[in-house]
Automatic annotation (TrEMBL):
<feature type="domain" description="Cytochrome P460">
    <location>
        <begin position="42"/>
        <end position="165"/>
    </location>
</feature>
<dbReference type="Pfam" id="PF16694">
    <property type="entry name" value="Cytochrome_P460"/>
</dbReference>
<protein>
    <recommendedName>
        <fullName>Cytochrome P460 domain-containing protein</fullName>
    </recommendedName>
</protein>
<dbReference type="InterPro" id="IPR038142">
    <property type="entry name" value="Cytochrome_P460_sp"/>
</dbReference>
<dbReference type="InterPro" id="IPR032033">
    <property type="entry name" value="Cytochrome_P460"/>
</dbReference>
<feature type="signal peptide">
    <location>
        <begin position="1"/>
        <end position="17"/>
    </location>
</feature>
<keyword id="KW-0732">Signal</keyword>
Length: 169
């Protein structure tokens, strides 16, 4: 004869797990999370490795620098596509400014945006595994601007796992 207690314990544990999963899924996104994707600015990203620079022509007229976490950097170095889950890219954008010390030089001026891409194929299946965030002064921008993130990446860089930036030699 088998005791009934193990079955009760398993049933209770499964019920508890379902409740815990439901509660986690219904937690509101942090106030500083991007609309649609819930992406936030990663802690410590300023210490991440440099991937590549970029210069945006007018009207934006920006200098940009892309940084990556260790997972993204490793994928770039190995030529791994698609990028593995856990890859995070952060683009820092600044207005171009004329150097006051050296006239021919352009230097970063005022910060314009911090843009974040997070690869999580389970969390973002409808956007090819990527979640997007765009932030001004540490605050997420409106939904319309986030909707353009995915459409631009899909229409231009599908063959590079929806990532524009290439690893700079």
């Amino acid at each position: 004869m088998k005791p009934a207690l193990p079955g009760i314990f398993v049933t209770s544990a499964l019920a508890f797990g379902a409740v815990a999963s439901f509660c986690a899924a219904t937690q509101p996104a942090p106030e500083n999370a991007s609309p649609i994707y819930g992406v936030t600015i990663p802690e410590g990203y300023r210490d991440w490795k440099f991937i590549a620079p970029a210069q945006e022509a007018p009207p934006l007229d920006e200098l940009r620098s892309v940084l990556g976490n260790d997972i993204a950097v490793d994928a770039y170095k190995k030529g791994t596509l698609p990028f593995p889950d856990g890859s995070i890219l952060v683009k820092l954008a600044y207005k171009r400014s004329q150097s006051t010390e050296f006239a021919p030089a352009t230097v970063p001026g005022a910060a314009t945006t911090v843009q974040v891409m997070v690869k999580d194929s389970k969390k973002y299946p409808d956007s090819h595994g990527w979640g997007f965030g765009r932030f001004v002064n540490g605050k997420p921008v409106d939904i319309a601007q986030h909707e353009t993130c995915l459409s631009c990446h899909v229409s231009n860089v599908e063959d590079h796992d929806y990532v524009f930036t290439r690893y700079a030699p």
